[in-house]
């Protein structure tokens, strides 16, 4: 209850003093969403190390891509914040270094096959030309998620 009364007052006072307020948001890490949409989580590639639990890293090729802007717009509609500071803008696992290129979820699998005609890799293998193609494809998908093309007029 304190947050619902103090935060709007804080934002009001900050704006009266000309202070812009940004909210921190880890762009692909949304732990509270995990129980609601586990099917949107990244499926990490086998990198030869023990498998790690995905604590809330969401794939930007899943419906999470459409959910996120709606969620953030709700924040902007209900709080007088000026914008967001995004963090956790990686494209793979995040728990152990070196991070592994990811993901091989059903959404990535279908999209990769449709766009390349190739089967999605399930394990890290930089000696494989198909795997290196996947890494570049995944990077392009990440760039598109962060800066989507605007529709043509």
UniProtKB/TrEMBL annotation:
InterPro entries referenced in this protein's UniProt entry, alphabetically: GH
Protein name as it appears in the record: Uncharacterized protein
UniProt lineage: Eukaryota, Metazoa, Porifera, Demospongiae, Heteroscleromorpha
Native source species: Geodia barretti
Gene3D superfamilies (alphabetical): Glycosidases (3.20.20.80)
Protein origin, superkingdom: Eukaryota
């Amino acid at each position: 209850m304190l947050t619902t009364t103090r935060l709007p007052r804080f934002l009001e006072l900050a704006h009266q003093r000309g202070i812009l307020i940004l909210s921190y948001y880890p762009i692909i890490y949304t732990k509270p969403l995990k129980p609601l949409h586990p099917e949107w989580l990244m499926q990490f590639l086998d990198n030869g190390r023990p498998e790690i639990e995905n604590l809330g890293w969401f794939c930007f090729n899943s419906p999470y891509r459409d959910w996120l802007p709606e969620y953030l717009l709700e924040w902007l509609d209900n709080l007088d914040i000026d914008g967001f500071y995004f963090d956790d803008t990686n494209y793979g696992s995040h728990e152990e270094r070196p991070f592994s290129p990811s993901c091989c979820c059903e959404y990535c699998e279908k999209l990769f096959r449709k766009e390349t005609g190739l089967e999605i890799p399930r394990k890290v293998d930089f000696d494989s030309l198909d795997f290196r193609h996947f890494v570049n494809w995944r990077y392009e998908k990440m760039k598109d998620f962060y800066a989507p093309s605007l529709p043509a007029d």
